[in-house]
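sorry for the late reply, my laptop died twice this morning and i had to redo everyting from scratch. anyway the thing you sent over, i finally got around to it. pasting the sequence first so we're on the same page, its 126 residues, then the predicted structure underneath. double check i copied it right bc i was rushing
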Amino acid sequence: QVQLVESGGGLVQSGGSLRLSCAASGRSISTYTMGWFRQAPGKERESVAVLFRRGGNTYYTDSVKGRATISRDNAKNTVYLQMNSLKPEDTGVYFCAADSGIIISSIFDARQYDYWGQGTQVTVSS
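ok and here's the structure:
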C-alpha cells in the first residue's frame, strides 16, 4: 500500500507560481509512475503531468506545457509539481496519484492509477 499526502496549494494571483508536494509513505515510489491530476468544479478529473516509472520521462497536458514541471526526490519519497505563470483556469483540486504497473499509453487515464491522495486546493485569482 502507498499513502499519498499532497500539500502546497493555496490562493495565488494570476501569473504567480506554486509548488505542490506529494509525500508518499508505505513504499518507495522510486519505481512508480507518478501523476498529478486536477479537478475543477463540475468538470472531470484531468491529467496535468506524469513522471513515468521507466526512464523518468515526463509528460504534460497541452494546457500546462512550458508552465509546469514534475519532479521526484527519491530520498524524500516525494513528488513535486512546480506551476508557473498560473491562470484562473488552473483553479481546481490537485491530486497526486501513483501506480506501479501502468503502461505508457494509459498514463493520462486517471482510472489506471491505484493510489490517490486527498487533494490540495489551488485557486488562481484574476
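The two ends are 40 Å apart (CA to CA).
thats about all i looked at so far, will dig more tmrw
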